[in-house]
Amino acid sequence: MIENYPSQNSNSNRSNNSVPPFPQNQPVPWAEEQEDDWNFQEFLSILRRRWLLMASVTIAVMTLVMINLVVNRKPPEYEGSFQLLVEPVEPVNNDSKVIDVVKDFNVQKSSLDYESQIQVLKSPELMKSTLKQLQASYPEINYYSLLESLKINRLGETKIIEVRYQSSNPKQTQVVLERIAENYLDYSQVKRQTQLRQGVQFIEKQLPFIQNRVDQIQKELQLFRQKYNFNDPETQVTQIASQTVDFFQQKQAIDLQLAQARANLAILQGKDGVTTTLNNAILQGKDGVTTTLNNDILQGKDGVATTLNNDILQGKNGLTTTLNNAPLYQQLITQIRQFDVQIATESTRLQEENPIIQTLKEKRASLLPLLRQEKTRLLDVKFAEAATQLQTLEVQNQELAKIEQKLAQKREQLPVLAREYVDLQRRLQIATESLNRFLSTRENIQIEISQSDIGWQFLKVPTTPDSPIYSVSTQRNLILGLVASILSGIGIVLLVEKLDNTYHTIDELKKKVKQPLLGNIPFEKQVTTKKNRTINQKFPLANIQNSLSQGVAGLAVLPDNEYDYFSTNFSEALRVLYSNIQLLSSDHPIRSIVISSAMAGDGKSTVALHLAKIATAMGQRVLLVDADLRKPTIHDRAALNNLWGLSNLISTNLPVGEVIRQLPSMSQLSVITAGPIPPDPTKLLSSQKMKQLMADFHNSFDLVIYDVPPLVGLADASLIVPHTDGLLIVVRIEKTNSSMLKVALDNLKISRLNILGIVANAHKSTTNSYY
């Protein structure tokens, strides 16, 4: 058993049966940046990497351009032209005879509709006579062919019309232009002038009717204003609105005063009944009120009497205010209160029938008639004042009602008058505009007639073209075709690059995958060559005890010829990878790692095998375990048989020494192959026996490397990584799909597995090492 292995390092004092201090699952931050922007350096790198595709597309497009130039080559064309001044121009000054044919924006705007005029010049009616003359010499010419080669345009904002015609025959070009020029001059002098004079006659007939219509509408508008004193709808609305606001303010003030006067009168007439009842109750002593008041005063209660007296004294309901302001009335009230106090005081020590109390009551009763008489007088005066005020306010209210009625009539009549006024204004405006338009049109036509008398003038007569104006420039088209071909090639390259989801450079891998890059394994052809030369033969089972006693203790350096097949860069990259792994943790050296990849074919098994060889060559006791129980490859790459392996070790009680192999080329390296493929690899890898074996391997070797299946879609790695020092992910340049790697990293994030870093594999770099 592995527990019997001697300790390989004197400074590592640990029990053979101890479980390795596996790292706890820690959340590892990683992310894949989605950066699609390319800088110039990356752009050049893409072109260098895909130069063959770019060259192929460029050659193909350039070939099509050259074929198109040969097939569509046209004969040279001859073009002639002439120019006509169709409107007279103003002289620069009275003394100068120089004519400025460019439009001056300070003078009157041109009266000619050039777009319509050009369409008339192209019309079949105007071209009919020209076609008859031309077809005598050139029967192949018809209206549509003539119009296709004929171009009539206005020169900018000038008063010049330019006519161009082109054909492959220079003589035909000259003849066609001469016939068209003659036809246009005849049109300008005869037909166009006749049409203008007919237009003037029509306008002269219509002007009297339009003038009468304007006069009639103006008269109706004047009578309307005089009848209704109506100037403008907006002014009328403003006036009525202002009057309405003033009226409502006055109406609200009068209504408020009326309400107050009516309330006062109602109080004085005793309609509310509150003050009158209270006073009578006090004065007449009904139902024992006076006695109750006396008792309340004696007992200090805040009862009914206090409330009633306060109501009278404080002037509630508007009546006691008047009584309180009367001196005589208040003097009587004060005396009655004094008698009430004396009666109440004497009642505490004397009986009710005592003469003293009776005398006090008689004196109090003698004051009550005087109090009623004074109250009646004061209320009569107040009532007369309130009645007079109410009558005055009602008269004012009636006057305001009459004003309101007048305003309501104006508001009802205003929309009708405004609509009638606006209708008259609109009719007057339409009639006036029509009159002005007719007058302006008559003036313009008269000016145009005077100009037509002069006729159109030649500024440039038809000339015979000496040389073709258009010939195919082969050199120019070839240059344009070459540029288009190169751009097409670049476009295809960029499109292919956009659709490619693999990593092409180390910088791109580091930029998009935020994980430590522990190694950069260059592409090595000899790795593939050696793999193809794998010897599938049976080797005798190694006796682990003999190997430990004889070979393991003497592990030192790998023979120099072990990597003679490989380049220096390849072997050096593996050494750098091993050194980086050992530098990851200074407190707890890396003792066991799992090597996997996002997808199959990324070279994980190759990296695992050669990393194990490099670690062995550097003096480490290394065990390489093929934990890929689905598609194992270590035994093929290492030229070992796979009769017994890890699957047998887990599922049976087979001793570990029976399944450990040594490589034919390196006997110091221990290897456990996968063994027969089980029906359920996950069940074996998650078993307690597997965990115990991993702990024993960890205690017995300096470094244990596990080769596991790909990460995406399989749970094998997540079962083994938690019991090791971490996971190493192999990414093959120009092969590993970035989306698959992202899925793998996301799954690892969910599982909270420790990722040691990334290894770039098969990088085809042309950069040489410094040494």
Summary keywords:
single chain, 771 residues, alpha/beta, Rossmann fold, eight-stranded mixed sheet, flat, disordered N terminus
How is this structure best described in words?
By secondary structure, the chain is an alpha/beta fold. Among the domains are: 47-73 and 472-499; 242-452, no CATH class; 518-533 and 553-763, P-loop containing nucleotide triphosphate hydrolases (Rossmann fold, 3-Layer(aba) Sandwich), CATH 3.40.50.300. The chain contains 25 helices and 12 strands. An 8-stranded mixed beta sheet has the order 5-12-11-6-10-7-9-8, sandwiched between helices. Helix 25 links the parallel strand 11 (727-732) and strand 12 (755-763). The longest helix has 100 residues, at 355-454. The radius of gyration is 60 Å and the shape is flat. It starts with 39 loop residues before the first helix and ends in an 8-residue tail after the last strand.
Helix and strand arrangement:
Blueprint: H1 40-49, H2 51-71, E1 78-85, H3 114-121, H4 124-137, H5 143-149, E2 150-154, E3 160-167, H6 170-228, H7 233-268, H8 274-284, H9 289-299, H10 304-314, H11 320-324, H12 327-347, H13 355-454, E4 457-460, H14 474-499, H15 506-512, E5 517-522, H16 525-532, H17 544-550, H18 568-582, E6 592-597, H19 604-617, E7 622-626, H20 634-637, H21 646-651, E8 660-662, E9 670-672, H22 681-685, H23 688-700, E10 703-707, H24 716-720, E11 727-732, H25 738-751, E12 755-763
Parallel strand pairs: 5-12, 6-10, 6-11, 7-9, 7-10, 11-12
Antiparallel strand pairs: 1-3, 1-4, 2-3, 8-9
